[in-house]
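Appendix B, Record 12. Input sequence as logged:
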Amino acid sequence: MAQQTAQASAPHQQAPEDAYEYHVSYSDSQTGPVRVEEFADLAAAERFASLQLRDAECWAIVERVDIHHHLRLVA
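Logged structural output:
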């Protein structure tokens, strides 16, 4: 019983960083509709998102997506 409790309370292991991709959803006054770009690493996604903020009407959101979860949903 004690062994089961210890296993149940162990923290979840984090997936390796390559198990994720980063989606940048963005909009600006020049391009019109919301667009989405995908990146393999967070730094590139954040740089891209920052470049999209050209004026007060612009916005960008960076989301981390678990690609293994995505693949399970497709299969």
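The longest strand covers residues 20-27.
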